[in-house]
Amino acid sequence: MSDLTPQAHPNVSPLRWLALLLALLVIVTAVASCDTEIPTPPAITVVITAVDNTDALAQGVAEALTSTAQVNIGLTETVLAQGGVTLTPSTTPTVTTTPTATTTRFFTPTPTLVPSATLTPTFALLPTNETVPAAADAAGWIRFAHAWRNVGSTDTQPLDVYLNDQRVAMGVDYGSATAYFRVQPGAVQISVRPSQIAQDVNASMPPLNSKAITVPPGGLISVVVANFGVGPELVPLTEDPSPVGSGSARLLVFQANPALPAVDIFLPNIQRAIGFSVVPRGLNGAFNIPAASYTLDLYDVSTVLPQFLFSTQPFALTSRLNYLLVITSPQGLEFGSSVLFSGASRFLDTEVGAHFINIAAGTGNLNVFYNTDLQLPEFPLGGITDSLPLPKNGLRLLINNSQNREVYQGLLGPLPPEDAGSDQIVLFVDDGERVGIKTFAQNPPPSVINASLRLIHALPGTRPLSLEIRPAENPLTTKRTADEGWVNVGQADFTNASGYVGRTPGVYEARVLLSGTGSVIDQLPAFQMSAGGTYDFVMMPDVAEGSVRLMLIQPSAQNTQESGGQAQATAVFEAVAATLTAQSPVEEASPTALPSPTATRTPPPTNTPRPTNTPEFAAPSVQVDPAPPNTVSSTLDIFGQHFAAKTTYTISLDNDGQAILTGSVQDDGSISETLELPPGLSAGPHVVRVCADCRSRGAQQETFAVFLVAPANLTATPTVRP
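and the corresponding C-alpha cells:
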C-alpha cells in the first residue's frame, strides 16, 4: 500500500503545498458553477515539414511577401489613378539583389494575383463646362473653318465661302477660319466652292458642298469642312459661347481623321483624359483648362493592349478665349495631324472685343496683366491677339518688360458712349523706356449696301502712309499692269487712322505706299468685302525681326445683310439718300443768339442782284429700267432729262470713276441708253452715274440712280411685283 501522504519536499514547505491545493479547489468550483458540462477538447494536428535547406526556405518566404506587396501596391495605384492622382517614381535607384540558384524545394508557395500590364495611363476624364443660356432674341454667330485635305496627301485647296448665296470670304486656306458673322437665329445656308476671283463664273458652278445650318439664339457655330472619305463634308459644331474666366481657356476637340480607329485622347500636361474610345466624327468638350501650352496623346484602344499612336504638335491657349482643335487626316506615312482654330466667346453686355497689337519696338517682349492676372505672357513685337473681352467701364493694365520692370500702369477705358458698342483695336507703343496706349474704335457709319474700310498707321519710324485699293483682276475678262487701276482711299500718320470710306462690296486688292511716292511697302492679294462689313487695314511690324506686314483686322463678329424685302428696301433707301445728299447736301444752321423778329435774307445779298429774268432750270434726273425692287441680270435701260443740250455725257458704275459708255445729249436735254452690264458684277445694289459736260470748267451735271443685280441663280424681274 502506497503512502499518499504528501511528502515534504526539501525546497517546498508544507504550508505552500496547502495553499496550492486550495487555489485549485477554488478554480474548479468556479468553472463548475458556469458550465456543468465540460466539452471534449478538439483534436489538434500539427504538421511539421522537414526542410533540409534553410536558404531555400528563407527565399520562398521572401518571395511570397514580395508578391503580396506588389498586389497591394498595384491596387493602391489603380485607386489613386481613378481619382486623378498618379504616383511619380523616385529618382533614387533601388538596389535589388539577384536571386541565387537553389535546389528543388519541398513545398509549393501559395499563388498570388499579379495585376496585368497596361500601355495607357489611367487619367480621369476632364469635366465639361456648363453653358450659360442666352436670351431668346439674341443674335447668333457662325464661322467657317477649313480642315479638309485628301487622306495621305499634303495637297490642299483654298475655298470660297457663301452665306445665303452671298460670298462672304474667298481664298480660305487649310488651317484658316473666317471671321464670325452675326446672323439672326434660324436657318442659314452655307456653301463652299473652289476659290475663284470671277464671282459670276464661280456662282454658276455647283458648290463642293452646301448645308442648311440652324443657328440658335446666342449660339456660336463653327462649320468645319473635313474629309471623311467622301469628299469635303460640312460639319456644324456647337461651341460653348459662355464667357471664359480669367486664367482659363476653353477647348473643344473634334476627331476628323477617318483613318484612325477608336482612340483614347489624353492631356499629359495635366494628367487628364479628353475622351475614351473616340471614333471619327467624335466631339469632346468643351473643357475649361488653365491657359498654357499643351499636346494631345492618342492611343489605339481597338487592340488587346492599347498602343500609343502619336502626339499632336504643341499648341498654346490664351486666357479667356475659345479654341477648336481638329484632328485631321494624315500626311504621308503619319498617323495624323491637327489644326487649332482660335475664336472669341460670347461677350457680356458690359464687354466689347479688343485686338491688342504690340508695336513697342524699343521695349521688347511684354508681359501684360489684366488687373492682376497675367493675360499676355511674353507678348512679342508684331504680336496681335484674337478678340479679347474688354469691359466697357475699363480695366487696369499693368505692363512689364522681359526683365520684369514695369513700363506701364494705368486704366484702359472707360469707353466713351459713342464707342461703347464697338470693338476696339489697342496699340502698345513706346518711347524706348515707357509704353503708351492708343485705341481705335471699329465704328464706321452703318450701311447695308457698302463695306467700310480705313488705314491704321502702326509702323514705327516711317513717314505718312497711303492705302490704295482696286477691284481684283478677273483673269477671264481683264488684263492690267501692276500699277493700273489703283485708287487712294486713305492716308494716315504714325499711330493715327484715316477716316472710314465706303466701297461697293466685291473682291479687291490693297496695298500701302509711302505717301507721295510710288514705293509699295506691302500688298494684300484678292480679298472679299461684304455689304455692312468693317475692314481695318493695319500696317505694322512683323514678328520676324526687320520685316513688316499689312494686316486686315475685322471685328469679333461681322454684320451681314438682312434677308428678305426689308434688306432690299433699306438698301434702296440708303442709296437714294446718298444720291440726294450728293446732289443737294443738307446744311443745318446752329444759331448762336436768340432769334429776333427781324427778317433775315437767305442767302445774304451780294452787290450783284440776281436778274429777275433769269429762267428757272429743272435739275437733271435719271431713271433706270428695271428699277428697284425689280432686278436686272444683263442689260439696263437708262433714261435722263434736263441735261445741257448737245453736250457729251459719260456713264460709269459705282465708285469706279471710269467711263464705260459715252454719248451726246439730245436737243431736248434727254438721254436714252441701253447699258450692257460688265461681267463679274456682284449681286445686290449698285449705282449708275451719269455726268454731262464733265470736262474741266464744264457744267458738271452729275446724277445717280440705283439698280439691283439679280443673283446668278435667280431670274431677273422686268415688271413690278404686286
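(Above: one complete record from the training split.) The radius of gyration is 42 Å.
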